[in-house]
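User: Can you help me understand a structure? I only have the sequence.
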Amino acid sequence: MPIPSSVPLGRDLAEVHLNKWGLAALADDTTLIVSELLTNALAAGQGMITLTLTLSGGVLTIEVADIGSGRPRRRRARKDDVNGRGLQIVEYLAESWGHRSTLNGGKVVWARCLIS
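Assistant: Let's start by predicting it. Here is the structure, written out as tokens:
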């Protein structure tokens, strides 16, 4: 069962790690990406969701895994739509994003941000 409080908890976790890594300047963009990816995983509503943040070689990678079989797709939201812009926001803020299948039939949606 999806737990909506996992979105703000995920944002908080990301901010804690960024501060720990000395990257507080990235907090606004990163927490927004985390929020959008977690919200999409919650909307899929299937099983446990995992958030992973890694920092390697000047690249911050944000990954959200779930066991839903649906693949992410970038929607073209209309001006008066309330939702449907999440992946557009991720695309704008991240250097790159994408997804991959997992062995359990789920997926991982990832975003990579360059550290300048």
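Now, to help you interpret it: The radius of gyration is 14 Å. The mean pLDDT is 86. Let me know which part you'd like to focus on.
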